UniProtKB/TrEMBL annotation:
Keyword RNA-binding (UniProt): no
Coiled-coil stretches: none
Database matches in InterPro entries: NHER, PDZ, PDZ_sf
Top-level division of the source organism's lineage: Eukaryota
Keywords for the protein's UniProt record, in alphabetical order: Repeat
Organism phylogeny: Eukaryota, Metazoa, Chordata, Craniata, Vertebrata
Compositional bias ranges of the Polar residues kind: 21-32
Segments for region (Disordered): 1-33
Domain PDZ: from-to ranges: 37-119, 148-229, 257-340
Protein name as annotated: PDZ domain containing 3b
A Pfam family per the record: PDZ
Length: 383
């Protein structure tokens, strides 16, 4: 199915979560700049295949640079100099480049970008076009985000949800909820449509396979749903429905953003690189001093470090993280998550920092290290 403007080609066999789109050349000169939607899907451990300069506070749009030949960005039709307006349905032109880079990093294996080419972006600015209104007009005002709902089984009424295949629609299911049941309390609504179950996209599932998944889910299940009207708009606009777009409901774990101010004796915690029984290594926060800046910020022993001052620690060495902390000045920003929380998001195939709370010190979350996290000490630094 092709769009009316001839800009994209849509392959419905790929499902609503990953429409295959390819940009085609257009010789039409448009008086009003028109943004275009691109869906990037990276394979394995590859990146999205472009750079986003983050060195300046002021910018002339979020400019894509160094688009890799054969990479995910180029495969989708993007080119060097394109300007990013939205990341996963979130308007970003007014955000700092570092914030946009974080949203891209947290997107997972797929990324949805609303883009103007460089010339169209400059023309829009010269015409005084409201870029946010331009983006909103492209996708419509009635578009609601999907919901990511975690359901805990009730001992008597169970999960309180049932899925029915839509007639003549392979891989599409409507949702029926028990009034007052566990699913409804978790944010699932009657006549929602099911998109995703415990990390599996349902467009690839038969009703029989979905039923088997439900029987094996145990006492908990996490699903992504969307109201049927919004789903129709997503499909018409060829916008994929991704977890990174979802509003979380009843999730048992969240990453937390901690703000620390350096004290006379530092921040008051120990950073340790530890190897778990699974063989993976993580940077654990340990030995939080009583009354220290770390404790005042809400840090607890056994949390795992995800970011330092907006930079992911995934590819950093222990020494590099320590340098980032010591060179941060009087203020330090950390994103952390509990070990059970990390396991939860890993099993779902989602980035653990995707749903981050800025102030969650009073959340009732088990931040103790589970038995699976019994560790060997690798490197230790007092900070």
């Amino acid at each position: 199915m092709e769009s009316n403007g001839g800009r994209f080609v849509f392959n419905p066999k790929e499902g609503i979560d990953n429409p295959a789109m390819t940009a085609t050349d257009s010789t039409e000169q448009e008086s009003t700049p028109r943004p275009h939607l691109y869906v990037l899907r990276r394979e394995g451990d590859e990146g999205f295949g472009f750079d986003l300069p983050t060195g300046t506070e002021k910018h002339n749009g979020h400019v894509m640079r160094n688009v890799t030949a054969g990479g995910a960005a180029q495969r989708s039709g993007l080119k060097d100099g394109d300007r990013i307006l939205e990341v996963n349905n979130c308007y970003v032109d007014s955000l700092l480049c570092s914030e946009v880079a974080r949203k891209i990093r947290q997107s997972g294996q797929q990324l949805c970008l609303l883009v103007l080419d460089g010339e169209a972006y400059e023309r829009a600015l010269s015409q005084g076009v409201d870029l946010q209104s331009l983006a909103r007009t492209h996708k419509g005002n009635d578009l609601k985000p999907p919901r990511l709902c975690h359901i805990t089984k009730h001992p008597d009424s169970g999960l309180g949800v049932h899925f029915a295949p839509l007639e003549g629609e392979k891989g599409r299911f409507s949702v029926n909820v028990v009034a007052g049941g566990a699913a409804e309390k978790a944010g699932v609504l009657k006549r929602d449509h099911l998109v995703w179950v415990d990390g599996a996209v349902v467009s690839h599932l038969t009703h029989s396979a979905l039923s088997k998944m439900m029987k094996k889910c145990g006492n908990h299940i996490t699903i992504m749903v969307i109201d049927s009207e919004s789903e129709m708009i997503y499909r018409q606009k060829k916008i994929p429905i991704l977890p990174a777009m979802a509003v979380p409901h009843n999730l048992p774990f969240h990453a937390r953003k901690l703000h620390l101010s350096r004290g006379d004796e530092g921040y008051g915690f120990v950073l340790r690189l530890e190897r778990t029984v699974s063989g993976r290594t993580y940077h654990f926060l340990r030995q939080v001093d009583r009354g220290s800046p770390a404790e005042e910020a809400g840090m607890t022993d056994g949390e795992i470090l995800l970011e330092v001052n907006g930079e992911s620690v995934e590819s950093l060495t222990h020494a590099e993280i320590v340098d980032r902390v010591r060179l941060s000045g009087e203020k330090l920003s950390l994103i952390t998550i509990s070990f059970p929380g990390l396991e939860f998001y890993t099993k779902l195939g989602l980035p653990p920092e995707l749903f981050c709370e800025d102030d969650a010190a009073n959340k009732k979350e088990d931040k103790s290290v589970s038995a699976a996290a019994e560790q060997e000490e690798e490197e230790v630094s007092v900070l």
